[in-house]
Amino acid sequence: MFALLSFIFLLIVFIYIKSPRLSENEPPLIPYTIPVIGHTFSYLFNTENFIKKCLKEYGEPFNIIIFGKVTTVVAQKYIPEVTKAHENFDSFEVLKEFVPLHFILDYNPFDIIDFHAKTTREQISGKLSLYFDKMQEDIFYSLDKWIGECNEPRSIKSIWNVCNHVTAKLIANICIGEEASQHEDVVHSFAVLSHDMNRFFFLPPFLSFIHQKLHEFVISLPFLIGFNPITKHKKVLINRMKPVVENRIQQKKILGDSYKQSDDILEFYMSQPNFDPSNVNYNYLADLLFFLIVVGIVTTGRSLANLLFDYAGRPEYWDELYEEASTFNEECNGKFTLNDINKMSKLDSFIRESLRHTGDMIIVPRAVTTDHYTFSNGYTVPKGRHVYDFSEDCLFSESQYGPDSKSFKPFQFVSQNVSASKVDRTYVIFGGGRHACPGRFYAVLVLKLFLYHVILKYHVRTENGNTPKKLMVGPFVFPSKESLIFERRKET
């Protein structure tokens, strides 16, 4: 009896401690039944309907309790406001809690986020014309390796895995140069790196019901006892990167001012003031590259897989896309350029629509980094509060996309003359404002080039002729696991 009473007492104390303490003039807290648990299960297993019901009854913003923590939700009306208030919010503060990369890297990548953003903006998106021919060559290589000639119909499984390897080949070339990226072990490591990490980091934070630090401690245990899922990948990268770095250092000594820099990220890192050619920190170089690789491949590979399914499952649009692609191909006479692909308005519109239909309910969660943030309607949220954007409310806005906003309308952006990489109030797939994804121009170019060459070379269809449903995991979606059927186009 004493033990039972002690347990009940401790439970009451725990619930009291974990009960939400809202600041003055906060957004309304949605009523809930179970203490501590709050709205967690509704959020995880019925995200769209749950949030829509809250919006209808309480408007925005509003507060919910997930994993024992008060979280503020904004939708179409306040997402643009939060996006513009970049000095008050930081999306990486949220990422650090759920994907603590500092456990597996020798340095904390979140400490130099501005450097990573600058690298992506200037050295990747800012040099697309320089990379264009290399990217095409890598796509030709990937098509031959992963899909082949397909003179007879061929079923390709694990489309997402294929797309990750395609993306990995492209990113490897840009990151470490052609010499190092030609090795298959490097490309494979890049492609599966995120998957190996996710087995540890995608553990639902149920221990956060007790305390967030407990969740962080548990997911860090493998690393604290010496097991790191990327150790083998780092060895591969350093093994292939080291000879390139040593050769470049030697060439700089010999050629001096006549040395010609390579167009890749590795060269950019070697030009930084903190790079010491007499004592190269290869672990640090690898960690810098791994952060870009993880961020780039996870998002681009997934988008590429979704795009292939969107194209393969909608045969009614094949002819128009093929006509545009073949017309440009004939006019260019084999000398296809960045300017040419940017003129392909139907291809670009199709990709923008595919990205709009990505399906994630939450795209850019943020944390308040200042003492507080006050919304334009007067509601205030405190420092540290997570603010989730119900992005679907923007991406399927009826005022912007019509009453059939959830329909797939691939050519609706042709007349609007907006590219797939252009962000606006209702197209928030890449975030928005000053902190919009700096790699979006590169990612969109990858999607364009790949689909362009697929259209020219193959007929692609789904197994049953329809667009398969994506896999929903909480508020996030992943590409279908179905196969696609590829068949080489017959010469006409």
TrEMBL record:
Keywords assigned: Heme, Iron, Metal-binding, Monooxygenase, Oxidoreductase, Signal
Gene3D superfamilies: Cytochrome P450
Signal peptide positions (record): 1-23
Cofactor requirement: heme
The keyword Metal-binding appears for this protein: yes
Record SUPFAM superfamilies: Cytochrome P450
MF GO annotations: heme binding; iron ion binding; monooxygenase activity; oxidoreductase activity, acting on paired donors, with incorporation or reduction of molecular oxygen
Binding site for heme: C437
Keyword Methyltransferase: no
PANTHER family cross-referenced by the UniProt entry: CYTOCHROME P450 (PTHR46206)
UniProt family annotation: Belongs to the cytochrome P450 family.
Protein name as annotated: Cytochrome P450
Taxonomic source organism: Rhizophagus irregularis
Lineage: Eukaryota, Fungi, Fungi incertae sedis, Mucoromycota, Glomeromycotina
